[in-house]
Every structure is written in structure tokens, then in C-alpha cells.
Design goal:
The complex is a heterodimer of chains A (437) and B (225).
Chain A (H helix, E strand, L loop, with lengths): L1 H31 L2 H9 L11 H6 L6 H4 L1 H11 L1 H9 L7 H13 L6 H5 L6 H14 L5 H12 L8 H15 L12 E4 L2 H5 L2 H13 L4 E2 L10 H5 L2 H18 L3 E4 L3 H9 L1 H4 L7 E4 H11 L14 E3 L3 H5 L5 H10 L4 E2 L24 H17 L4 E4 L2 H13 L5 E4 H7 L3
Parallel strand pairs in A: 1-2, 1-3, 3-4, 5-6, 5-7, 7-8
Helix pairs in contact in A: 1-5, 1-9, 5-6, 7-9, 13-23, 18-20, 21-22
Chain B lengths: L1 H10 L1 H23 L13 H15 L14 H20 L1 H11 L8 H24 L1 H6 L2 H21 L6 H18 L7 H18 L5
Helix pairs in contact in B: 1-2, 1-9, 2-9, 3-10, 4-5, 4-6, 6-8, 8-9
Classes of the chains: A alpha/beta (437), B mainly alpha (225).
Chain lengths: 437, 225
């Protein structure tokens, strides 16, 4: 008896050892499948139209980049566990159980060929909210430990050092000092009783210090009572990129703790998209947001200043050569700040502002968001997708393109370089700060 | 004689059995997704969730299936949009405004409504059949559809196609004697009723979930859905 049970225990164990990863993934996928996801999975008619919304599919024609295929693993997990048909198909071998190879495949397509920009949900005739569902697939793959290495490393750096780019507190302070000197701008730090807590992203700290200086200049000019915090210094949330609720919570709470400590009324997100999605549209479902604390974005704040006359802009300051605006997926399509940048650009460049097509909430993603830009292996793909953006800009003869997302800006800089274009990519805050009277 | 009896069975007990199976099946599907649990959305809204839902229904039902170029994805897959849209128009036109179908509704609901003249319904059916064939060919050749299509999808197509073709054959008095064609049509319809809850043809119900979620999520963010 004993020997027998020992043998069977062994078998179970070896069986488990073989498939631990896929089991973890399936369990995580199942955990994610509440009615919210299940009803949408079941609504899918498999018409394939979502593919035409995806910039990666459009750029490459690769069918596995179609959004419906990206959530196929979740559908399989859900049906094989919950539905009669799914179990039956699994039993008779019409469908295969999810294997480790499957995890690798889906890890590649949901992390490297998806920016969670959610354009596909606008294309879907059933209106399935594909972006957030893909976000959940990412989470399950992360739980199973199949996140792309570069992304995983960045998350670890953010956990341990406090910045996905490995910017230590000392380097952060040095860099801020340098920005303060170079641009002659005041950046208040750890100021108790400030109204607004501002945090910047590591991308801005390392690659776009001028954006930081611009934002500081605008806030100071408007007389804003603001501060940055050494405790909550990183705006970006790499946990949100990997879809891990645990890490998302950790990085969110660093900011919320800083906000509580300093007693601010609001957090203002710098030119960052994913962080805005995490803080404004996700945080309340994951952590306890301090009472009375609101979250806003620099584009909303800037526009308020202009509307209320706290800052004044030189009319037509950029009326030399066609200028256009790139709508970021997280700030415009998923953040609704669509009118504000246009209001500003119609002041700055009343005669030379032209729209890209498609634009506003229908805009096509830059191709570098959602953590894709941090994954080296995804480079060819993100440049291919950027080709769509190039075509749109060339069509209107753009000389300058501006945006309110630093992640997009980095992608534009890389992409314009890659396509050897003369078009200049600019941060809108930067444009505004230089056009203030 | 034999056709008569078979037809009586298919139109009578078999039809009602299929209808009951359909209703129970759909209730089962409904309760399953409802009972899976729904997390409350604690995120403060910027716009109106209800407003978003209203707009998304208006757009998706009245406008977008027919003028999808506002999304600039129309040219890339025009066939799916046109054939898909036309097929649904044809389907609803026939099952609600074909005189024999209205009489079935009347026998169940107790009231009727004006219907389309028979030749118009035949035209609608012909258009429906053509669009279904176009969609089938598209499914065979389109790279994305080739990748995602499974056995069940071929079943879905066949089981939707059969009532169309048998109904058309019967209405136009082609090839078969009337009773035989009618029996074949009823077999196809009974089969369809049974198959709907077991398949993705049930999207006509789950559509209201995904569309409502879509509208509410966009409305919450104050973005046009």
C-alpha cells in the first residue's frame, strides 16, 4: 500500500514538475476570469476584424498579432476549465492543454507585439474591451514567470532601486541639481503642505531633462504650490506593464504614501501615459487611494492655466512649418485629454497645425508603449509599426510632431532616426514653456 | 404521406422541444457569466457611464456596421464588414418581416405585425445566401481567419446556412416537392435552435454584455466609444 502510494505520489510530482509553469499560468488565467472577462470572451464571434485595428498586424501582416489570437490562451484556459464544450474538446483531443511552449509563444505576442493601446476594442463589432483582457493575459504569464527578460529586469530594478532604469536616489538628486542649474528653474523637493505632488519618469530624468525643466517652468510661472518627493520619485509603473497586480500595487503605494506624507491634494502625472492609466483609471480598484486625493495629467493642468489666464501664450509662436499632434493611447484614447492639446496648438500654431489621420480616440499607437520599448528583442517590430506613423506624418508634410507622452516621444525619436527623417518630435510641455509670455 | 407526418412532427413537438432547449440553454449561458462574479469598479468616473453605453449602442447598431470607414479599417477588410452587415440585415428582415415567420411569432406571442411581400423576402434571402458564401470563402483564405478558425466555426457556418438555403428552395419551389422542402427547412431550423446555446451564435445575447462594458468603460473615461 505504502509503496504504491509513494509511487503514485512520485508520478504526480513529476507530472507537476513538468508543467508547473503552465499550471500556474492557467490558474492565474482562471483567477482573472470573472463575469467581466467571461462574458466578453463568449461574445467574440471570431470575425477577425480586430486584426485591422492592431498596428503590429497592419505593419507586418502576421496573423498571430491579431488581438483575438492574443487572448486565445485565455479563451482556452476558460473553456477547458469552465465550459462543457471546452472540457469535452480537451477530453477527446480536439483541443490541446496549455503547454510551456504555448506560454513562450503568448509571452512573445502579448509583450512584444502589443502596447495595450486598445484601438482593437474600437474596431471590434462586439465592442470587446480587448486591451484590458490582454493586460490580464500578461498578468497570468508574469505569474508563470515567462515575462521577457528585459521587462522582468526593469521591474526588479524598480522594486530594488526605485527606478526601472536603475536611477539611484543619489543619481536622481544629482541629475535634478543639474537640471535646476542648466535650465535655471526651481524644483521644490519634499515640501510639506504643497497642493500638487509631481513625479517624473526615469525616461524623462535620463533622456528628456528638458521636459522636466519645461514642466517645472510652467508650474512655477502659474504660481502652483507644488513639490516632488524623494519617496515617490518614480512615476512609471513597470508592474502595470507586466500586468502584475502585486507590483502595480507596490509602485502605486509608493506614490500614494508620499502624497499622504506631504499632505498634497493631488498627484500630477508628468508626460507619461501608462502611469496615468495606472494611477487615474486603475489604482482605485487595486489599492486604497488616500481620501480626497485626485490624479491629473500635465496636459489638463497646463490647459487649465491657459484657460484661467495663469499663463499666457504667444499666439502663433510655432507657425513656421506644419506641426501635428500624436494622440497617445493612454492619455487621449484612454484618458480623454483630446480637446486640450488641440486648444493649445490652435493658439501656438493657428495656421500650421494639421491633424494626422486617424486621430483623437481613433489614433494609431506609436508602437513603443506598454513596455514594448524596454524589450530589445521587440525593436524590429516597433520600428515596423512606426512606419505607419511615418506614413501619416509624411502625408501631411509635417515638420514637427508633438505629444504629451515621453514614452511616445522616445519611440518617435528612435523611429524618426531609424527612418532617417527630418521631422522633429517635441514634447508639448516643452513647446508651451518656450512660448510663455 | 410520410412527408406529411414528418413535417407535423418537425413543426410541432420537435420545434417546441428545440425552442425549450434553446431557451434553457440561453438562460444557462446567461447565468453562468452572471454568476462568475463581477468586481465593483471603484474608479471615479470622469464622464457618464450611461451616456457612453447609449452612444455605443446608437453607433454600433445604427451607424457603424454600415459606415465603418470612420475607423479607417474598412478598406483593409471590406468584405467582412459588408457581407457581415448585409447578412444580419437579411437575417433580421426575413425572420421578422417574412410573412410565414411573422405567423410563427404570432402563434407564440399572440400578436402580429405587417410583413414584406414574398418576392422582397426572397431577394433578402438570396442576398443573405450570397453574403454567407462570401464569408465562407473569406474564412478559407484570410490569413487571420485561417489561424483562428476551429471545427466549431465551420459547424456554425453550416448550421446558419442550412435554414437559409432550405427556406429559399422551399419558397421558390425549387427541386423538391413542397412538403419535402418544408421538412428540410424545419430540420435545419430545429437544429439551429439546438445549436445556438452550444455555440458562438449565442453572441446575439452576449453582445449586450460586451457592448455595455465597452460603452461604460469609454463613458467613464469621457471618451467617445
Amino acid at each position: 500500500m505504502n509503496a504504491e502510494s509513494a509511487v503514485s505520489a512520485n508520478v504526480v510530482e513529476t507530472g507537476k514538475a513538468k508543467s508547473t509553469r503552465s499550471e500556474t499560468a492557467v490558474n492565474a488565467l482562471i483567477r482573472e476570469t470573472g463575469g467581466w472577462v467571461a462574458s466578453q470572451l463568449e461574445a467574440c464571434t471570431r470575425c477577425g476584424l480586430c486584426a485591422d485595428g492592431c498596428h503590429y498586424y497592419q505593419a507586418t501582416g502576421e496573423p498571430s498579432y491579431s488581438p483575438v489570437w492574443k487572448i486565445e490562451i485565455l479563451r482556452r484556459a476558460y473553456e477547458q476549465r469552465f465550459t462543457l464544450g471546452g472540457r469535452l474538446r480537451l477530453a477527446v483531443g480536439l483541443e490541446k492543454p496549455i503547454t510551456d511552449e504555448d506560454l513562450e509563444h503568448w509571452s512573445k505576442i502579448v509583450f512584444e507585439a502589443c502596447t495595450v493601446c486598445n484601438k482593437c476594442s474600437l474596431v471590434c463589432p462586439m465592442g470587446i474591451d480587448l486591451g484590458p483582457i490582454i493586460h490580464r493575459v500578461r498578468g497570468a504569464l508574469t505569474a508563470a514567470g515567462v515575462t521577457p527578460k528585459d521587462l522582468h529586469d526593469a521591474v526588479q530594478k524598480q522594486i530594488e532601486i526605485g527606478s526601472p532604469l536603475g536611477l539611484t536616489l543619489d543619481r536622481y538628486q544629482e541629475r535634478l541639481e543639474w537640471i535646476t542649474d542648466e535650465w535655471e528653474v526651481d524644483i521644490p523637493m519634499n515640501k510639506k503642505g504643497a497642493d500638487t505632488l509631481v513625479a517624473f519618469t526615469s525616461i524623462e530624468m535620463m533622456k528628456f531633462p528638458s521636459t522636466i525643466a519645461a514642466i517645472a517652468t510652467i508650474l512655477n510661472k502659474a504660481g502652483e504650490n507644488w513639490t516632488i518627493s524623494t519617496k515617490g520619485r518614480e512615476m512609471v509603473n513597470f508592474g502595470f506593464f507586466e500586468g502584475s497586480d502585486e507590483h502595480t500595487r507596490l509602485f502605486l503605494s509608493r506614490l500614494f504614501d508620499a502624497a499622504k506624507e506631504l499632505g498634497v491634494k493631488r498627484i500630477m502625472v508628468s508626460e507619461c501615459g501608462h502611469a496615468y492609466d495606472a494611477l487615474r483609471w486603475t489604482a482605485a480598484n487595486l489599492v486604497q487611494v488616500p481620501k480626497g486625493l485626485t490624479v491629473t495629467h500635465i496636459i489638463a493642468v497646463m490647459t487649465d492655466y491657459i484657460r484661467s489666464g495663469r499663463i499666457k501664450l504667444k499666439k502663433g509662436a510655432y507657425d513656421n512649418g506644419t506641426i501635428t499632434f500624436h494622440d497617445a493611447c493612454k492619455i487621449q484614447r484612454r484618458g480623454s485629454h483630446i480637446k486640450e492639446p488641440r486648444e493649445i496648438l490652435k493658439m501656438l500654431a493657428p495656421n500650421s497645425f494639421k491633424e494626422l489621420t486617424p486621430n483623437r480616440e481613433q489614433s494609431i499607437c506609436c508602437g513603443g508603449g506598454g513596455g514594448v520599448i524596454s524589450i530589445k528583442e521587440a525593436d524590429p517590430l516597433r520600428f515596423a509599426a512606426f512606419g505607419l506613423k511615418m506614413d501619416q506624418m509624411n502625408k501631411i508634410g509635417a515638420k514637427t510632431v508633438c505629444m504629451v507622452c515621453s514614452n511616445c516621444l522616445l519611440q518617435f525619436n528612435d523611429g524618426l532616426d531609424y527612418y532617417k527623417s527630418d521631422i522633429k518630435a517635441r514634447s508639448l510641455s516643452d513647446l508651451v514653456s518656450k512660448a510663455m509670455e | 404521406m410520410a412527408w406529411d407526418e414528418l413535417l407535423r412532427f418537425l413543426r410541432g413537438p420537435m420545434f417546441y422541444a428545440a425552442l425549450v432547449f434553446f431557451l434553457f440553454g440561453m438562460f444557462f449561458r446567461l447565468f453562468r457569466v452572471v454568476l462568475l462574479g463581477w468586481q465593483r469598479d471603484r474608479v471615479p468616473s470622469k464622464g457618464s457611464k450611461i451616456g457612453g453605453v447609449v452612444i455605443t449602442y446608437l453607433k454600433s447598431i445604427l451607424i457603424l456596421p454600415f459606415i465603418p470607414w470612420v475607423k479607417l479599417t474598412f478598406n483593409k477588410n471590406a468584405l467582412t464588414y459588408v457581407a457581415g452587415g448585409v447578412f444580419h440585415l437579411s437575417l433580421f428582415g426575413i425572420i421578422f418581416f417574412g410573412a410565414p415567420h411573422m405567423l410563427v411569432w404570432k402563434s407564440i406571442l399572440g400578436f402580429g405585425w405587417p410583413t414584406l411581400p414574398a418576392p422582397y423576402v426572397d431577394w433578402l434571402a438570396a442576398i443573405g445566401i450570397i453574403s454567407l458564401v462570401a464569408l465562407l470563402i473569406n474564412r478559407l483564405v484570410h490569413p487571420v481567419l485561417k489561424k483562428i478558425t476551429r471545427t466549431a466555426d465551420w459547424f456554425n457556418w453550416t448550421i446558419v446556412f442550412l435554414p437559409f438555403i432550405t427556406g429559399y428552395v422551399m419558397s421558390r419551389h425549387l427541386w423538391f416537392e413542397y412538403q419535402a422542402a418544408f421538412s428540410l427547412h424545419m430540420i435545419a431550423v430545429d437544429l439551429l435552435l439546438i445549436w445556438i446555446p452550444l455555440s458562438r451564435i449565442s453572441h446575439f445575447m452576449l453582445y449586450f454584455f460586451s457592448r455595455t462594458i465597452h460603452g461604460a468603460q469609454f463613458g467613464k473615461r469621457a471618451v467617445t466609444p
